Amino acid sequence: MRLMTTLAGLFFATCLIGYVQPAEAANMAEWTILIYMNGDNNLEPEALKNFEQLAKIGGTDEVNVIVQFDRIGKYAHTNPDWSQTLRFQVKKGTRHTPQDALQDLGEQNMGDGAVLADFVRWGKVTFPAKKFMLVIWDHGQGWRTFAANLAQRKRSIEASRAVPLKPNAITLRASSVLLRNAEGVATQDGKKAPFRSAPGSSYRSASNDETDNDVLYNREIQDGLKNVLGNERLDIIAFDACLMAMVESGYAFRDIANYFVASEELEPGLGWRYDVWLNGLVNNPKQDAQSLATWTVSAYANAYRADDDIGPSITLSAVDLSKSKELRMALSTLSDALVSRFDKDLQNIIEARAAVSTYAPGYQFYHVDLIQFLIELKKRINDEKTNSYIDNVLKITNSSIISNYAGSDRMGTYGSKGVAIYFPQNEHDYVTDPYSEGGYEKENIYYPVQFVQDSTWPDFLHAFWKRVP
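Request: output the structure for the sequence above.
Response:
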């Protein structure tokens, strides 16, 4: 059953969040870290390990560490075993047991935006602090949403081209699981799978709740948190999840938080190294949001830099979301200019896109680094006005990225400068993309992607695809 929040409750919660007595402010913790840890899926063993890393350091009087932890009891077992949703204040030595929890919520649907919103509301009221960071922990796949009419559009286009229809996202989500060996270790082709989603294992959002068969879309996060926060913002919203560092995601969260931390690429199964990260915060609790966002990138890089199997393929970025609207406007101006120059520059655009590598190779996600694409495009465009538009987008994008790390294998043609954007190379790739779920259709009304609604980048893509079948 979905958790429902009344309008009166939301109004009351918003008032509570915004009101702080001056004397109370002086005694507040510096930070409250809210971690929405969804282990109700095949990442359950990794969730338990990350919780243990948090408890190795623990919160302090100046740093509250608050975790809403959902499990399934299918991929890992503990003594005592449990599969419901628990809330913890994690201190040094806290165990991931019902006995150590602050609250037992029973089974909660962590793929429901109202459940996330309720956690943030409760966390802010119960653990007031000068600064707040929300970490959404789970699988992730960028901006995607679903439109019921997309399947028919795919069939009509594919019928005219004799292109085989690929399984849709719902089929993949229902049938594909990450295999595990007898010890519960995620495996791919008989070997340990180093990243959170092996090829063929499809998850459609930032939070996949297997028990409730639901997922958490960006629009649910955006709308749910906006209702709770009102005119306030979190200091940081971060994703310990794959593929979330996108222009589309940053734009969605521009009114939710000041800074955004996420990865352009897949993340390792264990995600962040929470003991290293939390130790850096509790030793410097007075640091501001920009500093903590930057430290999050550094701690992640330091955890995997020496790992030859994983280190070369990871990325993480910290982004200033105050630039999101300006970036959307500049990118729309460039998009319109590129459409007007198709007769002269279509081949140049095709070549620029082909020169940029796509993240999560083997997945058909079609995410590319925005800055790398623009660098390649400018090499090929011989028009002063268009190049000035490119320069403006580059300037804004670069200024928004306050910290960035990319392993050696994700430099070069990947770029990995900080934020990705959706860009299939041709219409065939788009209409046969098993993960697109209609999110790049402006008429989509099911959790619509606001960047798609507000910008002309999608118009450029659709016009481009008509010329590049």
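The mean pLDDT is 83.
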